[in-house]
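User: Design a sequence. Structure:
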């Protein structure tokens, strides 16, 4: 009797759990409800799933090998990982690196061993946001991936080269997913509007074309952003007399609230955008430079970080071709520090445009690079005695400062003198190229010729 009551109680608990799960699935955001369930429903990434492509071959031949899917948010990484795991008729254990640690990884590995021992079935270990695993957790996973106990299926928005330890990365293939194309996003929208059990069809929605274009343009290629905004737009639009909900551009703007700017201050996109800004300045393109500057500011980058990089650009790519460029960059940094955002951001824009318009020369950057290399290779060369300081009598007796010529005592404030160690005499590091610095090229060449003669053994000048 007691056993029957326990069985009924257990059955009631199970039904309650199933009902609760169904309720949660029904209340899930549209993006989750519309998640593709198989390859036929999956949209996009044709460069990986097209006939004969990497993932197409894997799915057709049901092959198993460790794989890391790398791509921006909302491009289908997690969904594709789940499809791969199910399509290869293997067991799947799903973990989120946000929640899982070394203990959960060890438990998953032990479960995979038991399943293989009992059913001879291989296991995919699906780890979402795998870049969030720390080094110790990745080290825990490594031997089990190496010996084939589990096949890793990772999904990440971060560059695996930066976030995944090299031994683990060398045992997995990396598939790069791209942001979804406009045509793909239109298909996703159409499916969500026409699907009744999972989508929005029961509300009889009619999405205006300009509203669809706005959602697509503001999504940054993220299907999740579009679907969740679309759901808000449909649900908050009242039905007309025929029961249809006409979602116009204004409703789309209200639903999206703010366009998505793809940027990650701590990830690869941070370096990609600052590189684009730097190269645009170097290429003297103020329009492109202003665009990349705006992208970084819109993405929430620290303006003082940008200001520091602008100072670097002034030194590296302009240098003495226009000495005022550095002053402009420093002034912009101080102006931003004084004004803050948004007013101070205009000072950064001014500096960026000035640097674009300024003559370019990397002569100083190149000269310093050559000098540092030579210094590293010859760091044991002694300073010539005539160049040494002689603050004590002993040093003077030892010859420190002897035969040093004070340049200001000579006509024009200059005389041919060898200031490098004898072993490096005649070595040239700096070559003026453009703008302000180029005005002194002839004079510098003449002086260098005289120093070369002196170094060859000719007698120095008389006062």
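Assistant: Done.
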């Amino acid at each position: 009797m007691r056993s029957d009551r326990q069985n009924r109680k257990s059955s009631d608990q199970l039904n309650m759990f199933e009902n609760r799960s169904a309720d949660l699935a029904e209340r899930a955001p549209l993006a989750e409800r519309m998640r593709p369930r198989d390859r036929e429903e999956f949209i996009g990434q044709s460069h990986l799933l097209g006939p004969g492509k990497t993932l197409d071959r894997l799915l057709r031949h049901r092959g198993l090998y460790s794989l890391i899917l790398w791509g921006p948010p909302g491009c289908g990484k997690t969904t594709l990982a789940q499809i791969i795991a199910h399509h290869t008729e293997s067991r799947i254990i799903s973990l989120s690196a946000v929640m899982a640690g070394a203990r959960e990884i060890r438990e998953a590995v032990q479960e995979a061993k038991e399943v293989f021992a009992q059913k001879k079935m291989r296991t995919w270990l699906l780890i979402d946001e795998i870049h969030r695993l720390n080094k110790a957790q990745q080290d825990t996973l490594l031997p089990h991936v190496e010996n084939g106990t589990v096949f890793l299926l990772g999904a990440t928005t971060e560059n695996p080269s930066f976030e995944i330890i090299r031994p683990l990365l060398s045992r997995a293939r990396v598939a790069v997913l791209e942001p979804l194309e406009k045509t793909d996003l239109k298909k996703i929208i159409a499916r969500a509007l026409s699907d009744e059990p999972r989508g929005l069809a029961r509300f009889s929605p009619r999405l205006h074309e300009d509203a669809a274009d706005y959602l697509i343009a503001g999504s940054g290629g993220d299907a999740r952003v579009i679907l969740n905004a679309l759901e808000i737009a449909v649900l908050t639009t009242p039905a007309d007399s025929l029961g249809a909900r006409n979602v116009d551009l204004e409703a789309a703007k209200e639903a999206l609230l703010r366009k998505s700017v793809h940027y990650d201050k701590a990830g690869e996109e941070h370096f990609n955008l600052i590189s684009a800004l730097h190269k645009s300045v170097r290429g003297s393109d103020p329009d492109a430079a202003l665009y990349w500057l705006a992208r970084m500011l819109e993405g929430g980058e620290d303006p003082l970080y940008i200001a520091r990089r602008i100072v670097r650009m002034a030194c590296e790519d302009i240098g003495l071709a226009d000495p005022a460029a550095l002053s402009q960059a420093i002034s912009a940094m101080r102006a931003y520090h004084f004004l803050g955002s948004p007013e101070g951001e205009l000072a950064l824009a001014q500096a960026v445009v000035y640097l674009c318009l300024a003559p370019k020369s990397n002569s100083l950057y190149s000269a310093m690079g050559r000098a540092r290399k030579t210094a590293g290779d010859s760091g044991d060369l002694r300073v010539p005695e005539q160049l040494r300081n002689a603050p004590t009598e002993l040093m003077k007796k030892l010859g420190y400062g002897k035969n040093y010529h004070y340049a200001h005592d000579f006509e024009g404030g200059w005389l041919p003198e060898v200031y490098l160690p004898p072993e490096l005499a005649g070595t040239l590091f700096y070559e003026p190229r453009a703008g302000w610095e180029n005005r002194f090229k002839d004079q510098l060449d003449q002086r260098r010729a005289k120093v070369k003669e002196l170094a060859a053994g000719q007698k120095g000048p008389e006062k």
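The longest strand covers residues 91-96. The CA atoms of residues 385 and 449 lie 23 Å apart.
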